[in-house]
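Good morning C.,

I know you're traveling, so I'll keep this short. The sequence:
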Amino acid sequence: MSINAISSSMAVSSAYTTKSTELSEETKAKLQALGIDPSTVSSESEAQSLIAQVEAMSQSDQARPNSSDQTLLTKAQALAEDVGVQYSYKDNLDDLCEKISQKIEQLASQYGNDGAKMSILEDYQRELSSIDSRYSTEIDKDDSIFNAMNMISVSNKYALGLK
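The tokens, ready to paste straight into the viewer:
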């Protein structure tokens, strides 16, 4: 291969690389709107892929927690009403579970030797434990997903030579 052919090949390659690393204004705007620095992305296709991933994650984050957390919150509110706990609709699940637990303990100390009432309180305690356990599982799942995404992000940065 002649030197002219190699130079020509390198010039074409360089021109292609320059064109592929330029991002459209629309893509830059989308990246910035998602909180991503456009200078960290090396090509239009990489930017589009990243945008799609972030949008898909945000859509799944919005859909799943609302349905699962809302179901558990509704169950906890029903239990709170059964036990006689005063709560606000602004209370989160942790606060509500704590109030229910305190009320069950208070009622248990009042009822002492009444077997029928203690049996009902044990049922309430089992239901509360079930809600709390399912909520903890949801939080653990969310944490695992976040950690996996973080590891992938770091891995991608190393692969792209950004770190």
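Safe travels,
E.
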